[in-house]
Structure formats: C-alpha cells, structure tokens
Amino acid sequence: MNHCLFAFSCALNILSFLHSLPVRSNPPENPHTAQDLNVEDSPVLQRWQRQVPNVLEDIKNEPSFRTRLRLGYNRFSTGNGINIGVEDIFIGQSRLTISGDYQWGI
C-alpha cells in the first residue's frame, strides 16, 4: 500500500512539474535551407547527383544494423552471474533474424 501511495505521489509531482512548463506557441525556425547545403561536403548528395539509387534494393541487400555480441555481469541479492548473447543473426538471404542469450550464476 505504501508503494502505491509513493508512486501516486511521484506521478502527481511529475504532472505538476509538466503543467508548470511554458508552452511554445511557435515552432522554432529551421536555420538550414536547401540553399545552405554544400554538395561538395556531402558524399550522399554527390552520389545522388551522379545516379539516384534504388533505395528498395539497398534496403533488401544492405541490412540497416549489424549482428551484435553481448557480454554482461549480473549482480543480484541472491548471487552474481554472467550473461552472454548474440542479437540479430540474419537467416540466409531473408530479412528474418534470430537472437539468443545464456546466463549462469558464479
């Protein structure tokens, strides 16, 4: 019961704080316009000027993220542990991925 009252009190304090913040009536102006873009400084704009890429093919052939390995140390009141894992292993040429992890106490 005390935890619920504490959580409710925290929520009320956060809402009160958010309510006290000033509201912006006008969005900030974007200082950069199309005229400010310098093609010589942007490899992406240079590539698009030579030939507009096939974005759908790029999405299909180039994954937007890499496979990641994970190693961690866990500390609990009941003991310590180690966690190892791998995330987003691509399955063949498909867009499907698998992930897995294993943890054990030491």
Give an overview of the whole structure.
- The chain is α+β, with helices and mostly antiparallel strands and 106 residues long.
- It has a domain of 44 residues.
- The chain is built from 3 helices and 3 strands.
- Strands 1-2-3 form a 3-stranded antiparallel β-sheet, with no helix packed on it.
- It is flat, with a radius of gyration of 25 Å.
- 0% of the residues are buried.
- The mean pLDDT is 77.
The residue ranges in which pLDDT falls below 50 over 5 or more consecutive positions are none
How many individual helices? 3
Mean pLDDT, to the nearest integer, reads: 77
Q: What is the terminal-to-terminal distance? A: 36 Å
Q: Quick one: biggest sheet?
A: 3 strands, antiparallel
Spell out the helices and strands N to C: HHHEEE
Based on CA inertia axes, which overall geometry fits? Answer: flat
Alpha carbon gyration radius: 25 Å
Give helix % range: 25-40%
Percent of sequence in beta strands: 25-35%
Q: Let me know the number of strands.
A: 3
> How does the helix and strand content classify structurally?
alpha+beta
Strand order of the largest sheet: 1-2-3
Topology:
Layout: H1 2-20, H2 43-50, H3 55-61, E1 68-76, E2 79-90, E3 97-105
Antiparallel strand pairs: 1-2, 2-3
Short description:
The protein is of the alpha+beta class. The chain contains 3 helices and 3 strands.
Structural key phrases:
about 110 residues, about 30% helix, alpha+beta
